[in-house]
């Protein structure tokens, strides 16, 4: 029995090391792809795929890199695997200039034709009127919010009339959008991407994410059930769960929520439960490393420094 347990432990350690090596190889491959070093990128993707082969996104990026590196055979092979693993954005596929090098290949025509047929079948079962309504709500939600963010950034997040005016418009639009989305949720439930497509499906999460705590808590169980059925992304649920936790004065689990220090005007992570293992939890539900996430907000993630700052951050969060 002891020998068997020892062998199982060795196997688990090997799997964990493989996962770490895979992530490191993919990160290096992506960096080479972005830098235009396609030969090294292709070699790194090939090494990574020998260890792990789950993500359609990594295969898609690898196909783009191989196409730009004029390795058409490998590019088409990886693209085919990506489609088999779930890639389905036919419009993006046909317009992605990284793949222009493949357009004259017979295999390219076969792959795009097969995917188009698959998409046509899926769209035939979609609720087109509801999809149109949700996409309209999505535009309302994002247009003003993006403009507001740009204005606030321009003024270095200081109080300004332009931002205040846009903020009031955003709040009004959020309230109107929420009325529409609540009606959909109460009548149809949490509609999945199979019925309205991915962008329209995302609308429901975003509108609830931007609502008040009472509404978020009311529809959280519905979203949790939608994730179990595959009608919503676990990563989106994680963001909502974190936001509710912070609003209730608890620590967040996935480190998705940041605040702005009113004195320094710098961004900071609201208190995180067990920060040493936050990346393990993020990876489990499809979120990237917190170090990369932090960069989007001009924040440097240092877990040891964060743990020292945590008591002060807890006081600051309670004030907010």
In brief:
This protein has 320 residues and is mainly alpha-helical. It has helices spanning 2-35, 38-51, 56-68, 72-84, 90-95, 106-124, 128-154, 161-188, 193-196, 198-209, 213-228, 234-247, 278-284, 290-295, 303-319, and strands at residues 258-260, 267-269.
Describe it.
The chain has 320 residues and is mostly helical. It has 15 helices and two strands. It has helices at residues 2-35, 38-51, 56-68, 72-84, 90-95, 106-124, 128-154, 161-188, 193-196, 198-209, 213-228, 234-247, 278-284, 290-295, 303-319; strands spanning 258-260, 267-269. A two-stranded antiparallel ribbon has the order 1-2. It is globular, with a radius of gyration of 22 Å. Mean pLDDT is 87; it is low at 1-18.
